[in-house]
Specification:
Chain lengths: 634, 283, 371
């Protein structure tokens, strides 16, 4: 394999002198893929653009970047322009932000073609159409005329891939190519990229914050931190035994391996003593009316219960309705039908006094750490607000309580006078948690509390949440799309898709033995930071349909490989499976049993079990009689 | 607070603006008292004299001392501008907050906020100056009518601005967080939304004060504003207009310069506020 | 690899908009987004115009004392006053008064001017072209000079160009926003007429000695070209220079500032960076930048165009222009009510029509807007 790119001591500093890249060196060969990982601010994006000769305006660049025989740093911009978009092409994310909003995407692809080769626009358009179908977009003709805002995230990303491939690239640079995409879509897109890169025998550099992507798609890995290379080498060796302390910490944080699995993670065998039910959702339906008399059904008859002291994980991708459920519980929006009971009180029928008490007992932590704090208030004000509002304590005791709260979340009292924009995201999220605790709640709704946080901070927050739960006997409803976090913190999990619950049950069981095709697909799409994780090819086709066009019957019918006529006739009910308390909404759940169960989900790191063949061997089951088998002590 | 001081210190333009505004406001208070000659008493014997040691800025057609009138005019011009802007804010901001908070919601409040918005649209369809002109023409050229007219035509600006800010703030996570924490709508509007919406209002206030001064001058120039002999920059320019054509430039030029400097001062102050609010400009 | 039998993947993207067929047939145009928006927008026009007219009508109610006396002036006979009172329906409730007034307006009756003795409608019709000519030419001048300048200054690179240009634009913006156009007009007269003797006297649109061309549009420039009267054209242009400059100087600043900031924003946007990273030529990138900066600039120009009517009133006064603005000023000085009201109505209607045009253009350019 010939060497494509050789970078030697690349240094980039801003005009004012602060260093962005401090002497990076690495090589990329033809047909090889290099994964560059690091947290925010590590300089990964600066690196990619500097390779193209587009370092930030006014910056000072030194070192060497050799592409084939050419020293790129010494070439004129006009020469480099000819390389960009042809031999060296780049894919970035999020896709829709990278496309010109005022031009149809087909034209944009054609423009890139014509920028590098003198062909007529007719030929360029035809090639564009061809590229669009090569990246697996159904109905390329429609897509070519579409504007970026009309495309879904996954489709837009594929368009970017098409653009990158337009002129037969030798080296592809991918900057967070799956930013903002749903888990299942992410896998599809990555496989598309990999497949096409292999086809063309090109080199690939993937920049990401997701170690899982690197584990499964890259030969080599390079860890960056604050502009420096911390470690580099083969991926297999890196994941097995990282040499550097920082990389080891990253790996641990991603896998949450230094955090104990929550106490109740073991499979609940038989019914143990029941805790009093804290939250009960019954037949919740939420419709958003649309013009023309139709309605968008965001939540379609969801039911589950959360018991005191446990953590219920709520999992789903975009359009699943999980956030809407949370908003109904918090009374941020009224549900169309169904009811929510908390501590035995029906929230819709509660009296004013009962509601006041309930508001105190249910609190929430949201996704955007800084956004959820009022920028014009000091931390002291933010933490005192709810105490005073709900009259939890008399005025004189508020300050003391505020200090206690800070202590609970491991923050120093010195931040009391600060404002949110002066603090980091991790600290802000701790403040948000402290605020939620200020009214001594019983139930905490956590809506994607870690998805905007950096790798190591994420782990810290999750371990903090676990500690708080133990110390304060809290109940959590943990909503997330991050399955690793769910695996660690949730005792039981409910999986939602397009507004319906498709599966629920004890987390460990769910993860090792999913009984619904969607759960299985979701789990197999999760890329653990472990190259030896067996790759289960259980994939769903296509993309998540819009909730406006939710199909009648089973919501997964448009994408499920097991779909049959029965699936389209009626909405499948949740039925018990072969495990006690583990329910599935798939009419053919028994086909999920057996060889397809995941072993790796038990212990994420150092998995040594061999993968079992993923074929489904149990015979089809007609009708919908639930097949129940007491499964004790398995 | 320290951030504010550091900010001001780093920006000479802002300092200049603040200085100008301070001087102008001082003139508003003491202007007529420090004027060398009586601003409202004409001395026909010395009419149309070029600048001289006795009359630093010369005299106009009627024999008024230009300097005295230039210095006395802020008491009218600036006071009108400040009062009118204060009224506009006092009426426009609460309306805007209300409209923004209830916009899009069902029920009577939502509907009313739509009506309000449409009315503001109608008002803003007229060129500002012409609307003010119409109001003063109908009501009569007296100082309180000028204030009322200027206040009225600037209300839509504040309504829209506050509404837009409220709408965008309303969607920010901390408002949702406050709702889920149990705060009532009213509390959220005042405690959470308003403090964050006020920044742009402050910026707009400086700009509006500048516009108000120009409006007053324009109205007075065509005789639909402050009647002569009250010293006012616009009417002074009108008085001197004929003389400009014949080459006596001083009666019109100096009031214009004074006008320009005042508006520039307010504009620089507004600019400075805007830069402070924009998080990107923090060092 | 993903299965080829993707019959169910027709849902595809989140259908945020119902995109209309995009082919070029006539049928599709009728179906199209544009037509729907047009209809919606035009339907909205009627209440807008009604609202404008109501506000204008309400001015009568603001007149101190008895409106009829105020309108007819001190020379009126009691009979005339009584007549007008009945006509206006002053004893009736407000909506009825409005209706009476509206009916007359829709029939073209905007009242009579005490001063000129003519119907206000015909007075305005005669004088309006002068005003329109003035503001149109100054808007065009501002656009033609400031938009290219804004494009130049907004482009990345060229540190010195941008620094000097930036400071220049800043100073210009400050001055143009602070100095009233009527004062600038006077200064220009002083410099170019009184002192340098280059410009003609500020006494209207043509030299005293020049005969105006036969009236086709009312625009002296157009009419003289149509008539082939180069002398008149020359004189008209000479007289236009100073007033146009006074207006254009003031409105040029926001045009410059907005164009520059829009271009800067577009150039700094992610998709621009990305386009450059894909090797698109500078020329292409600039074309993208232009098209994407256009919508807000367009809106602003619409705003400015109607805003200028106010400025025109002042400038016409300075230059004795004889347009609708000066007519209104005269009416105010003479306590002549109907012309003022007529002018205000025309100004309002004019603005509404301009905003409609701008909205339609904006909609045509930006595909993201919903009809």
């Amino acid at each position: 394999m010939s060497q494509l790119l050789a970078v030697d001591q690349l240094m980039v500093a801003t005009a004012s002198g602060s260093a962005l890249l401090r002497g990076l060196s690495f090589t990329v060969r033809q047909g090889q893929s290099l994964g560059i990982v690091g947290e925010a601010g590590a300089g990964k994006t600066v690196l990619l653009y500097s390779l193209l000769g587009m370092s930030p305006r006014g910056s000072v660049v030194s070192g060497s970047v050799r592409y084939k025989d050419r020293e790129l740093l010494r070439e004129a911009d006009s020469q480099l322009r000819k390389l960009r978009g042809s031999e060296l092409s780049i894919i970035a994310g999020p896709a829709r932000a990278m496309l010109n909003p005022l031009a149809p995407v087909g034209n944009q692809i054609a423009n890139v073609i014509r920028a590098h080769r003198s062909v007529s626009s007719a030929i360029a358009n035809r090639e564009a159409l061809d590229l669009i179908s090569r990246v697996d977009i159904a109905d390329p003709a429609w897509a070519a005329k579409a504007y970026p805002h009309e495309l879904s995230g996954g489709m837009a990303q594929r368009i970017l891939i098409a653009i990158a491939l337009a002129n037969n690239p030798r080296l592809i640079l991918a900057d967070e190519p799956t930013a903002g995409l749903d888990t299942t879509v992410q896998l599809q897109v990555l496989r598309t990229i990999k497949h096409l890169v292999d086809e063309m025998d090109a080199g690939l550099i993937v920049v990401t914050r997701d170690l899982g992507i690197i584990a499964h798609f890259c030969h080599d890995v390079m860890v960056m931190r604050e502009g420096r290379v911390v470690e580099q080498g083969g991926a297999g060796q890196f994941f097995a035994a990282p040499r550097d302390q920082y990389s080891a910490a990253l790996l641990e944080s991603v896998n949450l391996s230094r955090i104990q699995l929550s106490d109740a993670a073991e499979v609940q065998v038989s019914a143990t003593e029941r805790m009093p039910i804290t939250l009960r959702i019954v037949d919740l339906v939420k419709d958003y009316p649309l013009s023309g008399g139709r309605a968008l059904r965001a939540v379609n008859g969801v039911a589950f219960t959360v018991e005191a002291g446990e953590t219920m994980g709520l999992v789903g991708e975009s359009g699943s309705g999980k956030t809407t459920v949370a908003r109904c519980i918090l009374n941020l929006t009224t549900c169309t039908s169904g009811h929510i009971e908390f501590g035995g009180v029906d929230l819709a029928a509660a009296s004013e006094r009962e509601m006041n008490s309930i508001r105190r007992r249910i609190q929430a932590v949201f996704q955007d750490p800084q956004g959820s704090l009022n920028p014009s208030m000091s931390i002291k004000g933010i933490l005192s607000e709810l105490i005073l509002l709900h009259r939890v304590l008399p005025q004189s005791q508020v300050v003391g309580r505020v200090r206690e709260l800070l202590d609970l979340v491991d923050l120093p009292p010195s931040i009391l006078g600060r404002r949110p924009h002066q603090l980091s995201a991790g600290i802000c999220q701790r403040v948000a948690i402290a605020r939620a605790l200020s009214t001594n709640p019983e139930l905490l709704i956590l809506d994607e509390p870690t998805s905007l946080l950096d790798i190591r901070v994420r782990a810290d927050i999750i371990s903090l949440l676990q500690r708080l739960q133990r110390e304060l006997k809290l109940t959590y409803l943990f909503i997330s799309h991050d399955l690793t976090a769910i695996r660690h913190i949730a005792d039981r999990t409910t999986v939602m898709y397009l507004g319906s619950v498709v599966e629920d049950g004890p987390t460990a069981e769910l993860f090792t033995s999913p009984r619904h095709p969607y759960t299985k697909a979701l789990l197999s799409a999760v890329l653990n930071a472990d190259p030896k994780q067996p790759f289960d090819p259980f994939q769903l086709e296509g993309e998540i349909p819009s909730p406006i066009n939710a199909p009648f019957g089973c919501p997964l019918q448009t994408r499920c490989p097991l779909v049959r006529t029965a699936c389209r006739e009626a909405h499948p009910p949740l039925v018990l499976t072969d495990f006690a308390e583990h329910r599935s909404a798939c009419l053919f759940w028994p086909e999920m049993m057996g060889a397809g169960d995941f072993r790796h989900a038990e212990v994420p790191r150092g998995a040594t079990d061999e993968a079992e063949p993923a074929e489904i061997t149990t015979p089809t089951v007609q009708g919908s009689v639930p097949y129940r088998r007491e499964r004790m002590n398995d | 607070m320290e951030a504010w001081i550091a900010y001001v210190r780093a920006r000479p333009f802002f300092q200049a603006g603040l200085a100008i505004v301070l001087v102008i406001c001082a003139m508003m208070v003491v202007g007529p008292l420090v004027a060398p000659h009586n601003p409202v008493q004409a001395n026909p014997a010395v009419s149309l004299q070029p600048p001289s040691p006795n009359y630093w800025l010369g005299t106009d057609d009627n024999g008024f001392d230009v300097l005295s009138r230039v210095v006395a005019a802020p008491r009218v011009d600036i006071a009108i501008a400040l009062i009118a802007t204060a009224i506009s804010i006092g009426v426009g901001v609460p309306l805007g907050l209300w409209a923004g908070y209830f916009s899009g919601r069902r029920g009577p409040f939502g509907w009313l906020s739509e009506v309000l918005l449409r009315s503001m649209d109608m008002l803003q369809a007229f060129p500002v100056f012409i609307l003010a002109l119409a109001l003063v023409a109908a009501l009569g050229p007296r100082i309180q009518n000028v204030i009322a007219a200027i206040a009225f035509v600037n209300i839509p600006v504040f309504v829209r601005l506050t509404r837009a800010e409220t709408l965008s703030i309303r969607q920010r996570p901390f408002v949702e967080a406050a709702r889920s924490g149990g705060s009532s709508h009213l509390r959220i509007a005042f405690h959470h939304v308003a403090p964050n919406a006020l920044g742009p209002v402050l910026v707009q206030a400086s700009v509006t004060i500048g516009w108000a001064v120009l409006l007053t001058a324009g109205l007075s120039f065509i005789g639909a504003g402050i009647p002569i002999p009250t010293p006012e920059w616009g009417s002074m320019i009108a008085i001197g207009a004929r003389d400009m054509v014949t080459g006596q430039w001083w009666p019109s030029v100096f009031p214009g310069i004074a006008l320009g400097i005042s508006v520039v001062g307010f504009a620089l102050v507004g600019d400075g506020f805007r830069g402070f609010l924009d998080p990107r400009s923090h060092g | 690899m993903v299965d080829a039998s993707r019959a169910h993947d027709l849902e595809g993207p989140l259908p945020l908009t119902r995109s209309a067929p995009r082919s070029g047939t006539l049928r599709s145009w009728f179906d199209s987004r544009m037509l729907r928006y047009l209809v919606k927008r035009l339907a909205f026009l009627v209440p807008q115009l009604l609202g404008i007219s109501f506000i204008t009508f309400y001015l009568i109610r603001l007149l101190p004392g008895d409106p009829a006396t105020a309108i007819l002036g001190s020379m009126a006979t009691p009979g005339q006053i009584q007549n007008l009172r009945e006509q206006l329906g002053l004893t009736q409730p407000v909506p009825v008064q409005y209706w009476l007034w509206l009916q007359r307006v829709l029939h073209g009756d905007l009242g009579h001017s005490n001063f000129t003795g003519n119907a206000v409608a015909s007075d305005l019709l005669t004088r309006l072209p002068a005003t329109l000519e003035l503001i149109t030419i100054s808007t065009v001048l501002a656009m033609v000079t400031m938009i290219p300048l804004g494009l130049l200054l907004g482009r990345p690179g060229g540190r010195w160009r941008r620094k000097i240009g930036g400071s220049g634009a800043f100073v210009y913006g400050l001055l143009a926003g602070a100095l009233p156009e009527f004062w600038i007009g006077l200064i220009l007269i002083f410099v170019f007429y009184s002192w340098l003797g280059l410009a003609p006297a500020p006494l209207g649109r043509l030299d005293m000695s020049v005969v105006p061309p036969p009236r086709v549009t009312g625009f002296l420039t157009i009419d003289s070209v149509v008539a082939g009267d180069w002398v008149a054209l020359g004189s008209a242009l000479q007289h236009l220079i100073l007033p146009v400059l006074s207006l254009a100087f003031v409105i040029g600043a926001p045009v410059l500032r907005m164009t520059r900031s829009m271009v800067e924003n577009v150039h700094n946007s992610e998709y621009m960076e990305y386009a450059r990273a894909l090797g698109l030529r500078d020329r292409q990138v600039t074309r993208y930048a232009l098209r994407n900066s256009l919508p807000p600039v367009l809106t602003m120009i619409g705003l400015i165009y109607s805003f200028q009517l106010g400025g025109a009133v002042l400038v016409e006064q300075v230059f004795s222009w004889g347009g609708a603005g000066q007519y209104a000023v005269q009416a105010i000085a003479n306590a002549d009510f109907w012309p003022v009201q007529g002018f205000v109505l025309i100004a309002g209607v004019f603005s509404v029509l301009i905003y409609l045009t701008v909205d339609l253009l904006y909609f045509a350019i930006d595909p993201r807007i919903e009809p």
